[in-house]
Amino acid sequence: MGTALIYLVVLLGVAAVFFLGATAVFGRGEELAPIPPTATPTWLPGPEQDVDGEDVRAVRFQQALRGYKMAEVDWVLERLAAELDRVQLELAKVSGERDGLRGRLAELESAEQGPGGAG
Q1: Does the pLDDT of residue 39 top 60, yes or no?
Q2: Are 53 and 85 in contact (CB under 8 A)?
Q3: Using CA atoms, how far apart are residues 70 and 20, in angstroms rounded to an integer?
Q4: What is the pTM of this model?
């Protein structure tokens, strides 16, 4: 029993040395220096600017202990970015059609008034 206890203590000691050595060499796993608590890496254009798919794709959230699964957040952001791109493309198409119809309406109204200008 005493030998098993000695082996256990030695094993825990070796594990602690490896852990402390790895922590000293690799740090806490952060690639960049931590940002101040009041700051955030999350950025989007201001309210006066449009948010497009590239803005959503560029969003990064600060991680915290017991934070989020990055793969899930990335999936949601990609889905939102694709939807924004689709909606903006559809809006541009509809706006172009609207402008064309306004031009056609103006032509019809001027033709209806006739060359004399009387209606």
Answers
A1: yes
A2: yes
A3: 27
A4: 0.47
